[in-house]
Amino acid sequence: MRIPLVLSGALAACALGLLSAQEPPSPGTAPANESPGEAVPAPNGILTTLQGLIDSMDPLRAEQAEARRDLEALRASGADPSELKAAEDALKSVAEELASLQKKFERLATGIGETALDEHGAEDLNLQDELTVLLEPMLYELRKSTERPREIERLRTALAGFERRREIVDESLNRLNSLLPNADGEDLRTTLQGLKEGLTARQARLKSELEAARFQLQEALDKQDPVFSMLGRVLSDFLARRGRSFGLALLAGVGTFLLFVLLVRVTERFLPDTDDFRRSLAFRVARLSFLGLAGVCAVFAFLGVLYTQSDWLLLGLSLIFILGLLWAAKQALLPFYEQLKTALNLGPVREGERVMFDGIPWEVKSINFYTDLVNPMLTGGHVRVAIADLTDLHSRPKAREEPLFPCRTGEWVKLSDGTYGEVISQTPELVRIRTVPGSIVSYQTVTFLGLAPDNHSEKFGLRVTIGVDYQHQKISTNEIREKLEAHIRAGLEEDIGKENITAFWVEFESAGASSLDYCVGASFVGEVANRRPSLIRAIQRHYVDACNENGWVIPFTQVTIHQAS
């Protein structure tokens, strides 16, 4: 019963938080046409206000009656249409003002908004009008912050226009000055002189306007702050005017999310701590649903604080940002679906199984928005991977006692490139080996795995080929084999101890081109893996000693040359 109680308490706290966050603004900031139930003054204050409205409407009614009589008198006398239009406008203006006061009186007396009793309900929403209302605070702030740069650009444009018009006037005057000396008729000369005087006066006006525009532009440029100063001023202005609202909203959002996460952690303490339960579909669905609810409540808490603070600019920006995220999320529904399946432990990668990531084997420890991959055989073998990086991978159940890496630090390995040595460190990026001569060789971990490392630290074997001359052919398959096996085995037992040899044999292998060959095979415990190169040399040494003791000839490669006839 503890679990339902904790979950019920969490949901109740979320609901209370949302309701308190979405309380409407105070009556002082509420619109005038609120629906029923809006806050009203005390009864005595209402009556005083209503009486004041009536006192204001009485003179308007008298004025309306007088305007109506004047209009009728003008119509009866056949007055000019312009006079009739002026009288009608005056009557209409008084009627509109009187109707406005009457609506205010009715709304204050009844407490009912203008559209509350409308049979058709609220007006149809106009998307363009709603967007205008939403964007108006942002556009105002943007216009205010760019007022000075726009003023400078306007002055530059005006200055360029004055200069262009002055050039045109100058060209016109130059043309008139060239025509006047050659004008013969008095009328032509008088007309050209009149044009010149008009253009001269216009030239003087343009010069004055040009000087004024230059002065205003220079003054605006002098008042313009440097870029960094302007940015600092904008930032300080934002912090002074919006910082408190944004800080409270951010604190509310983060606090709500962390509260839900804390509730999840506390709730999980009362649940069975077994892998089967933690990896079950019901547990994962409940956990993801609760975290999703935490995110939604955090967003509502953030927006609710901005709403109660009446910060319409930040509220509008936040809504636009959230709508943008939702629009972008619509384009990624299919990848999100695959990630959701993986998060529910229903995808191709599942908890507790083995997966190859970046060419290295890992165990999937836990799947969440960031998945934990572990490999205890590597130093630093713990990586956090985004769930999106797992959708293209496939895991499989681990076999019993299946290692996640072919060796451990301190073990001896032999690689396919011939390298033999002790592993001194292995991480997800690099494996370092100290070879028998003492040098250190480094491999990328993926390259190291590609060289098929042969681990000699548990048990390893050697295979050496030796041979005797063909003159011992009669005793080669029995007597020589038996004596070689006994002599070499005794020598190895003396070198490293009998307990370190788990198997030993000598068998006839083949009749070669120049020798009768034997295969010497031996298996050793991992404790003597560091002596592997010396054991190969010891087998060769004991083989030579056996040949010397028994008088056997060690063959060498012979080349026979046949001369053509």
Kindly describe this structure.
This protein is of the alpha+beta class and 565 residues long. It has 6 domains: 42-114; 141-224, Helix Hairpins (Orthogonal Bundle); 230-331, no CATH class; 349-396, Roll (SH3 type barrels), CATH 2.30.30; 412-455, SH3 type barrels (Roll), CATH 2.30.30; 459-550, Alpha-Beta Plaits. It is built from 14 helices and 13 strands. It has helices at residues 2-21, 43-76, 81-110, 127-145, 147-179, 186-223, 227-269, 275-278, 281-308, 312-330, 333-343, 445-450, 479-496, 532-550, and strands at 354-357, 360-366, 370-374, 382-386, 395-396, 412-414, 420-426, 430-435, 440-444, 454-455, 459-468, 501-511, 516-525. The strands form 3 sheets. Strands 4-3-2-1-5 form a 5-stranded antiparallel sheet. A 5-stranded antiparallel sheet has the order 9-8-7-6-10. Helix 1 runs parallel beside helix 9 (281-308), helix 5 (147-179) runs antiparallel to helix 6 (186-223) and helix 13 (479-496) crosses helix 14. The longest helix is centred in the middle third of the chain and has 43 residues, at 227-269. It is elongated, with a radius of gyration of 49 Å. The chain starts with a helix and ends in a 15-residue tail after the last helix.
